[in-house]
Design brief:
The protein is mostly helical. The protein has 16 helices and six strands. It has three domains: about 110 residues, no CATH class; about 180 residues, no CATH class; about 80 residues, Cytochrome Bc1 Complex, Chain D, domain 2.
């Protein structure tokens, strides 16, 4: 019970930086980061790993490691470190937990989105920015400021980065015109500056909240549809497909947090509005939940990295020694470990669960020497995943 209570606090710190309610569908219909946080706690991961300093110290703090770039990048890290983790758990008297496909899917979603949210900013730095960036000329906070724009004392939705992003996008052109009329140079913001600004504005916004707060990663599948429907795709590509007027939003090589994304929107709105006007494209209005879905789509566009290759997967199964232990339709390894009889390997999450549940033993190498645990790169894991999923789905043997 104590461990469960402790982990509830950890999950809240990670996934609720503004104390907001869950107001929208989760990451995808099949993956829920909040459920993944519970898996992380109930399966005992917190005994060895911490999240933002809270938890075990045996393994690395998973919120502070380099960001996982894709689903298979994370799966590769789990597999490559499995022998050491299993040995350490044995030393500590911890039974290694097993995962089913749903638990694996939720856990990966949780770990993948650890860096999605921004750390809290500095309210004092935000107060200075509110004045230095001339926000105070148009907006009132704490009873002080201008009346050109809305009074921010009653904008409780500022607690949501998605509300801020949508507001800056929807009203960016009008704000630019208002600043031009008053002779104010339009300020640029970094993600860190927006963190500080919101840290100042959110406590000052004491009025009643109107509408839900959108803080969870949105629905990537809906975001993909919106990216097309709102005509973003006519100017921007996403990992290849799309327009060439603006940059490829995944080709930039950065998975931005919501506030980093918001800062980029604010800084680029005038240029984008000018291009859209020249091309006869009306500036689309976005609700906060739609902004959340689009951000989720862009954030997860590389989630599955490059597609795996079935042919390379077969080559790896031989090269890495998988077929010394595992049979395929009665051929090669032990019949009892025939991969075509394996359950739940027809999805990426099922593959991850099976790899994690794998016994940490290897077949003896020629000459009786101990065979080393095979390591994989991200692309190799995608290729192996393609093979395993094909074996889990297709009844026909591979073509040679």
């Amino acid at each position: 019970m104590r461990e469960s209570v402790k982990w509830t606090s950890v999950a809240a710190l990670v996934l609720l930086p503004f104390g907001a309610a869950w107001a929208q569908p989760v990451f995808s219909p099949s993956q829920d980061p909040l459920a993944g946080a519970r898996v992380f706690g109930t399966k005992g991961c917190t005994k060895c790993h911490s999240i933002n300093g809270i938890g075990g110290k045996v393994g690395p703090d998973l919120a502070r490691v380099q960001r996982f770039r894709s689903f298979y990048d994370l799966a590769t890290a789990m597999w490559n470190h499995l022998p050491k983790m299993a040995e350490r758990m044995q030393q500590m008297g911890i039974a290694r937990p097993t995962l089913d496909p749903k638990e694996a899917a939720d856990l990966v979603a949780f770990l993948y989105t650890l860096n999605y949210f921004d750390v809290p900013g500095s309210a004092e730095a935000g107060r200075k920015l509110f004045s230095e960036k001339k926000c105070i000329v148009c907006h009132t906070v704490g009873g002080t400021g201008g009346v050109v724009g809305p009074n921010l004392d009653f904008a409780r939705q500022l607690a949501s980065p998605m509300f801020v992003a949508a507001a800056l996008w929807n009203h960016g052109p009008q704000m630019a015109e208002a600043m031009k009329a008053k002779g104010i140079e339009r300020p640029a913001f970094t993600g860190a500056e927006l963190r500080d600004l919101l840290a100042f504005l959110v406590p000052a916004s004491s009025g009643p909240r109107e509408g839900p707060l959108y803080v969870l990663p949105g629905r990537a599948d809906i975001g993909r549809q919106l990216f097309s429907e709102k005509r973003c795709i006519e100017c921007h590509a996403v990992a290849g497909p799309g327009g060439k007027v603006g940059p490829d939003l995944v080709g930039l090589g950065v998975r931005r947090s919501p506030l980093e994304f918001t800062a980029a929107i604010w800084n680029k709105v005038p240029a984008m509005a000018k291009v859209m006007e020249a091309r006869g494209i009306p500036v689309p209005q976005l609700r906060p939940e739609e902004m959340a879905d689009i951000v989720a789509y862009l954030y997860s566009a590389r989630y599955f990295a490059e597609p795996g290759s079935l042919n390379r997967g077969w080559a790896l199964a031989v090269e890495k020694g998988c077929l010394f232990c595992h049979a395929v339709r009665g051929e090669r390894g032990k019949p009892a470990s025939d991969l075509t009889r394996a359950k739940n390997i027809d999805t990426p999450a099922g593959v991850v669960a099976s790899l994690w549940n794998h016994a940490t033993v290897t077949a003896p190498a020629p000459g009786g020497k101990k065979r080393e645990w095979p390591g994989f790169t991200e692309q190799e894991m995608a290729d192996l995943g393609a093979l395993l999923q094909s074996l889990g789905r297709a009844p026909q043997p591979p073509t040679r």
